[in-house]
Design brief:
The protein has helices spanning 2-20, 41-56, 74-83, 115-123, 125-138, 177-185, 198-203, 214-219, 245-250, 253-287, 300-313, 315-318, 321-330; strands at 28-34, 61-66, 88-90, 140-155, 171-173, 191-192, 209-213, 228-230, 236-244, 291-293. By secondary structure, it is an alpha/beta fold. Strands 1, 2, 3, 4, 5, 6, 7, 8, 9 and 10 form a ten-stranded mixed sheet that branches. α1 runs antiparallel to α10 (253-287) and α2 packs antiparallel against α10 (253-287). The relative contact order is 0.18. The protein binds D-malate (MLT). D-malate is lined by residues 35-36, 74, 91-92, 94-95, 174, 195, 212, 216, 239.
Length: 337
């Protein structure tokens, strides 16, 4: 595919530049925790990162992906990296928010409304500030971003098109206060559950439903335990590649540059991967028997309830309403008064 050739060309220019400047460093095979299964954006980002890292370091450094939460639940991997016992992790931004509340700006409902919005916010000055905050608050450094698409609602009970249709459904959410508050604004008291336990929770009907992007639903084989999909667009899923700051600071300057450049290459790949894969995966889920509904009235009721109730609750934790306004302004939208 053309986009893969472009990425390869960019990678080899970066590789030549970086390898020329490198001494004979200690070879490493970094452990990279991945929350999702094979076939998703997290794995795609991880593979692109490893390829670029190998090229950038002349094969001196590589990495191994441990899929499906083998190295622990996503939130636990943040602690492990902070303590220096895990090298890298690829996880949903909502699972970093509890450790670094300012990244909650990216999990407020209906703030990021497209892939273009997600790229603009993460790759500009706002993204830079969030990276610095996360190093300070959580001891981990975001070096790349996977873009996974909107989190759609799935459940095993009935089609959902309105807020009223949610009544009585038991919905799993990550342990993330903003997402919990969002469901509460829709009249649901959701069940916080670790990502690594979610498939079993759905299978055993401890919970009826959950939300995650199409590609994640596919990678986790949720079609085996879920029937109905609702095209909610409240949260565009952003899934960073994160390195232990302790590990990063222990690298030579050349290796740090190689890691950062590989993260950038993988990020560019991720946006193209989403564009290339999402529609095909959606069709595949339908062919496996899932039924897709759109929310009534263009989601107006969901949007109104969530933005009115949830945004103000989290101004303090994200650093003030001005932080939300910086994002809205960068995206060409009206600031909150
Ligand atoms: C979650 O729902 O906990 C995460 O979004 C899962 C993921 O990383 O894909």
């Amino acid at each position: 595919m053309a986009f893969i050739s472009r990425i390869k060309a960019a990678t080899s220019i970066a590789a030549t530049t970086l390898v020329m400047g490198m001494g004979a460093a200690q070879a490493d095979n970094f452990k990279i925790a991945v929350g999702d299964g094979a076939g998703g954006t997290q794995e795609a980002l991880g593979k692109a990162f490893i390829t670029a890292l190998e090229e950038n370091t002349g094969g001196n450094h590589t990495g191994s992906l441990f899929l499906n939460g083998q190295l622990g639940a996503e939130q636990a991997t943040v602690n492990d990296m902070a303590m220096g016992t895990l090298d890298f992790s690829i996880l949903a931004i909502n699972n970093i928010t509890p450790f670094s509340p300012s990244v909650g700006t990216l999990t407020l409902p209906y703030v990021i409304l497209s892939l273009e919005d997600a790229v603009k916010v993460t790759q500009g000055p706002i993204g830079e500030e969030l990276i610095e905050n996360t190093i300070r608050d959580a001891g981990v450094r975001i070096i790349g971003w996977a873009y996974s698409g909107f989190r759609v609602l799935t459940n095993s009970v009935r089609p959902v098109e309105s807020v009223a249709d949610l009544d009585g459904l038991v919905i799993r959410v990550p342990k993330n206060e903003i997402m919990i508050a969002t469901y509460k604004s829709w009249g649901v008291n959701p069940t916080p559950m670790a990502w690594s336990e979610t498939f079993t929770g759905l299978q055993q009907k401890v919970v009826d439903g959950q939300d995650n992007p199409y590609i994640t639903v596919y990678a986790m084989k949720f079609d085996e335990v879920q029937k109905y999909i609702t095209n909610l667009r409240y949260l565009f899923s952003i899934e960073p590649l994160v390195v232990s700051e302790e590990l990063f600071q222990g690298l030579s300057a050349d290796d740090q540059a190689a890691v950062l450049a590989a993260g950038k290459t993988a990020t560019e790949f991720s946006a193209e991967f989403l564009k290339a894969e999402e529609e095909t995966i959606k069709a595949e889920l339908v062919s496996r028997g899932m039924e897709i509904s759109d929310p009534a009235d263009d989601e107006a009721e969901f949007i109104q309830l969530a933005t009115d109730a949830v945004w103000p609750q989290f101004y303090d934790s994200i650093g003030g309403v001005e932080k939300l306004n910086e994002v809205l302004t960068a995206l060409g939208r009206d600031p909150v008064q």
